[in-house]
# Entry
Amino acid sequence: MSFHLKNKVRVSLFFLGVIAVVFTPPWVPLIVMVAAALRYAAWEVLLIGLFADLVWLPALPVSLPLFTIASLVLVWGFEPLRREFLLGKGNIR
# Structure
C-alpha cells in the first residue's frame, strides 16, 4: 500500500471515529477504534477514546474513562498481533 493511500485511510478512520462519537451509539466508535488499532499503530485511536470519554462521561468524579482505557489496551495490546501478522517478522526463522 502506498504511503499516501495509507495516510488517507488513517485520517479517514480518525474522522469517521470522531463523527461516530458524536452521532452514533457507543459500539460504532469502538469498531472504528478496533479496525484502526488492528491495522496501524495508531495514536488516533487514543484521541478517539479520549474524545469519546470527554463527550460521554458525566460530570461525576466516580466515572471511569472506559474508552480511553480501551484505546490504550487496543493500541498496546494489538502490537504483537500487528508485528506477527501484518509485518511478517514473526514468521521468519
Observations:
- Helices lie at 3-23, 27-39, 43-56, 66-77, 79-86.
- The two ends are 25 Å apart (CA to CA).
